[in-house]
Amino acid sequence: MKVLQNFINGQISESQSHRFGAIYNPANGEQIRQVVLSSAKETEAAVAAAEQAFPAWSKTSPLKRARVMFRFKALLEQNMDRLAKTISEEHGKVYSDAVGEITRGLEVVEFACGIPHLQKGEHSANVGTGVDSHSLMQPLGVCAGITPFNFPAMVPMWMFPISLATGNTFVLKPSEKDPSLGLIMAELLKEAGLPDGVFNVVNGDKEAVDVLLTDPRVQAVSFVGSTPIAEYIYSTASAHGKRCQALGGAKNHCILMPDADMDMAANAIMGAGFGAAGERCMALSVVVAVGDDTADTLIAKLEEKIAQMRVGPGLTDGPENDMGPVISAQHQEKICGYIDSGEAQGAKIVVDGRGYQVPGHEAGYFVGPTLIDQVSPEMTIYKEEIFGPVLSVVRVSDYETGLALVNHHEYGNGTAIFTRDGETARQFSEDVIAGMVGVNVPIPVPMAFHSFGGWKRSIFGPLNVHGNDGVRFYTRMKTVTSRWPASVRLEKHTSAFVMPTMD
Ligand code: NAD
Predict the structure, then answer these.
(1) Please, where in the chain does CATH 3.40.309.10 lie?
(2) Whose CA is nearest to atom 36 of ligand 1?
(3) C-alpha distance from residue 204 to each of 58, 133, 197 (Å)
(4) Is the pLDDT at 75 greater than 90, yes or no?
(5) Ligand 1 mutation target, pool 281, 284, 413, 443, most atoms within 8 A of CB
(6) Nearest atom, ligand 1, residue 248 CA
(7) pLDDT at site 29
(8) What pLDDT score was predicted for residue 497?
(9) Known catalytic residues?
(10) pLDDT digit string, tens, across residues 125-180
(11) CA 213 to ligand 1: nearest atom
(12) Span from the CA of 253 to the centroid of ligand 1 (angstroms)
């Protein structure tokens, strides 16, 4: 069985670790590969390679670094089919959704191609008489990325294209559940002309991560994953003097107003609730329906649509499925446990995805699309992130109660409102306590040239990923104030002992 290794200093590096993780095809439950779980020493070797590569790469002109990104973008496009099939095989999502994820990552690469412009800094002439001021946005050094299973291509590409383009070197620790994409992207970066050691991949678990959080040579850590781990990453990396952005879990609500276009909303809610089997940090998991009629109308439409959904493997020879399996047997069990708890606490299971069987794929990790009505805020299924194809409906009598629900939830990643009323939508956008807001848009994921990030316990750290925040995260500002004497003979040189002010 193929063992996935590390990529250090421009080549595959055979691990000496005796610990391995198993990689499964979630569509049939078969183990397809193994991945090394690297030792601390091996992780340190990757950091050392990145440290060694930093001086030359950081001095390479931004234009040359951007040209590597241009070639990398072209290679991603040429390899799209291979990349998407690998994602689908290891993660389980349907092929076209895997293409969609790569495309969203590729857009960050396109953004990073503009780095000569983005990293220009600022300049002010004559801040004082004959005095100019300019800022340099300089790279930090070795940066690390620790990424989740649900977007094995896109989430790493939220991080490393901007980090590399701004002149940093990088160590990626991908999810051990679907690690192939990290290694393939490392090969493509090398083919694009990236010098050895600038981008490294260390496969592993907590042992590898802890080195990245504590090694003094690592300057910045970018993390995406569940909230308890995000808290650990942020506190440990910060305590070791590193810059850190740690994006965590979510419980995305949408408010469905009685005046919404119900067909448009139902279609949007279906895709956002059940796409990628609900394993998206921006998946919609709670619909807050304003008024019983609104809830009844929506539920009738959703029931009809769910009955028509095609659930099965992500890769097929025939027509594509709408939804694939979840990532693992344990996760399948956990999701079904949540549905059990909802039922036990008095919610109404309208469509039940427990025990879902796909003919020919009986050992696959499938959970059918699940719709639960009469969910209330005290229930576990309301409070906790389920990360599966489970959509809850909470009924409220008015908009204010709905807004208060969204605002009181501990997570604040994405949220949406469905309405035809511009004033309600505008007020919602202003008052809602969440980082990303959709108006009749169910998954409001900002484009690469804006920044992505939630609020509350969905993020730790002041800067979001990609867009201008991404450039700021991977650079530090140096401000130079300069005066050039017109002539040494004409200047009177005296010492000043007061705080300098310009005139
Ligand atoms: P996870 O937290 O289990 O793992 C994420 C990464 O952390 C992996 O690389 C893993 O190896 C590492 N890790 C796990 N346990 C660790 C430990 N004890 N110490 C150090 N490192 C550890 O998350 P996951 O299950 O891979 O991904 C799903 C989660 O990610 C969900 O909660 C989802 O909401 C979240 N997510 C959030 C966003 C966002 O933008 N906010 C995006 C994608 C996913």
Answers:
(1) 252-439
(2) 225
(3) 28, 46, 19
(4) yes
(5) 281
(6) 41
(7) 97
(8) 84
(9) 281
(10) 999 999 999 999 999 999 999 999 999 999 999 999 999 999 999 999 999 999 99
(11) 20
(12) 21
Q: How far is the CA of 465 from the centre of ligand 1 (A)?
A: 16
502 has a pLDDT exceeding 90: no
Task: Measure 248 CA to ligand 1 centroid, in angstroms.
Answer: 7
User: Is 371:302 a contact under the CB 8 Å cutoff?
Assistant: yes
State mean pLDDT over 260-273. Answer: 97
Ligand 1 proximal residues by C-beta, below 6 Å? 146-151, 155, 173, 175-176, 205-206, 209, 224-226, 229, 232, 247-250, 281, 385, 387, 413, 454, 458
The DSSP letter of residue 290 is E
Cβ distance 39 to 16 under 8 Å?
yes
**Which 3 state secondary structure label does DSSP give 306?**
helix
Residues of the chain with CATH 3.40.605.10: 3-248+458-480
Which tokens hold the place of 91? 């993660």
DSSP 320: P
Paired sense of beta strands 475-483 and 131-139, if any: antiparallel
Q: What is the structure's pLDDT at 45?
A: 98
Confidence of residue 492 (pLDDT cuts 50, 70, 90): low
Measured CA distances, 318 to 49, 314, 359 (Å): 46, 11, 15
CA of 152 to the centre of ligand 1 (A): 11
pLDDT at 359 (0 to 100): 95
Which residue from 149, 203, 244, 385 has its CB within 8 A of the most atoms of ligand 1, so it is best to mutate? Answer: 149
- Check whether 436 has a pLDDT greater than 90: yes
- CA 466, CA 158: separation in Å to the nearest integer? 6
Find the mean pLDDT for residues 480-500: 78
Q: What superfamily would CATH give domain 252-439?
A: Aldehyde Dehydrogenase; Chain A, domain 2 (3.40.309.10)
- Cα–Cα distance for residue pair 96/117, rounded to 1 Å: 33
Of 209, 244, 285, 459, the one to substitute when testing ligand 1's pocket (max ligand atoms within 8 A of C-beta) is 209
Ligand 1 atom, smallest distance to 175 CA: 9
Q: What length does the chain have?
A: 503
CA–centroid distance, 226 to ligand 1, in Å, is: 4
Describe the strand order of the beta sheet including 475-483 as a list of residue ranges: 123-128, 131-139, 475-483
Class level of CATH domain 3-248+458-480? alpha beta
Q: How many CA atoms lie within 13 A of 114 on its CB side?
A: 13
235 and 210 Cβ atoms separated by less than 8 Å? no
3-class DSSP state of 24: strand
Q: pTM for the complete prediction?
A: 0.96
For residue 296, which of 227, 393, 389 has the smallest C-alpha distance? 393
Written as one letter, the residue type at 191 is E
Q: CA distances (Å), 424 to each of 269, 284, 297, 404, 481, in order?
A: 19, 20, 21, 15, 48
